[in-house]
Hints:
The protein is mainly α.
Amino acid sequence: MSRSRFVSNTTALGVAAVLTTILTLAQVKILAGFLSKGAFGLFASLRGLSLLFSMVAANGLPQLLTRFLPSLQVEGRKASMLQISLVSIAVASGLLVLCVAFVHLFRASVFADVDPNVGGGAFMFWFYATTVGVALKLVIYGGFGGLRRMDAQVILETVSMAIQIVWLFIIRDELSVSAAFRVFGVVSVATVIVGLPWFLVLSTRDATGVVEPRPAIPSERAVYLKYWVGATGLSIVAMAFTDVDRYILSQVIAFEVLGLFHVASRIAHIAKRFLGLPALAFQPEVTRLDAEGRDADVRLSTRVFVKFNIVVSVLTAGLVIVYAPEIIRVVASSEYLDAFWLVVLFALSVPLSAMTAPLTTLMKARDEVVAAFWCDLVWALSYVIALVALTSSIGIIGAGVAMFVACVAQLVTAVGLSRLPRSERVSASALLQTVVAVALALAPIAVVSQYWALSPGANFAVKVGLALPALLLFRWLMSLRSVFSTDERSRLVAVLSQRGLKPLAVVFK
């Protein structure tokens, strides 16, 4: 029997979320501070384009390795593990060649809006290096996920990001779009050079069953191929959840304005990253209970997950909104304060995504993957269509509206496709109670920000001083009429405590 790595993996991912958040903030701070607004927007656009080609090359292969390596590992089939891993790397490499050829042939069209001084030979080399490195990293990280060795992935990604930031800081006074891509390209390729042999060694060393050196039989290859084709659809949809939208936006707005979007989007991404951590605790719980046929407990855990996400996400959205100017200054600089309303709209979309998460989590736990796919597809299509239409007509604020509209569409789809009783799909009472409590608790901070004529430093100090009283007031308001029943509260505290989230569990006792 293989040893469970759930606790260590959850811990690793939690630590990674904190570290990568800090590193991401430092990265954006340097790029936004030492590149002009136009250059920063151009970098975001080209980085999104590079990521697009990376995801096309890695299309479905990380999911393939994550799905099939665990069973091959348990069976001790080292040869098959090595074979599927090397074939995945080879296929990704072949697709990368096609992507590079495509970019080379249509370079004039792809980089039509790029200054020739930026899009010269040196830049193109580092653009290709970044694309290749990121694509192969995605495949390798999928392999680490299949081996349940998230610690290896966390080490590689954290160290590589730290090296990128140190390098960017060293060259900050000579920073340019081409220089930034040189940093990302070299570090990404170096990560692959270190990560690939590490992954291949682990894939054979960790096999636990009787060693079976035979290659995969033809019928298994057909299963792999069928799964890869299905995963390709999911990967295409997943592109809409990445930085690819920066390149799309660059076709309809100026690069200077795109920089505002990139800053606001990064702030929202950080908030969503932390809100995604509870899913690490609840998804395995729901999967286990469903496998044991404990339907009543599945419904109880899902109700807890729904209400917990509502409480945490609404509070997070409120905090982001009232502290938006300060957050923008910390993440970028005062030059990007025009991103305020984008941050507000992105923050308002956070609770919608958080309410969708329990429903799609349960779908995946019950092998209702098609339903979860439709939810993501509706989001992607709604977002891309609204993004282009609204930003073309009303400017960059349309991007925030597009995000909100897409999240509403996704939530409505998830509620409609969910097999839970209708009364348990969304808790309107919990949402209303939390919104009222957050509004009352954070109102003093909003008033100070709006009506006190203080310097930015003094305003920040006052708002920080009001943070703890506001949180205590929020907890007291929530206690007046409990969102959770006794059973729901007990289940929530137990699950959070078991998954290493005791500080968070204390808040809900």
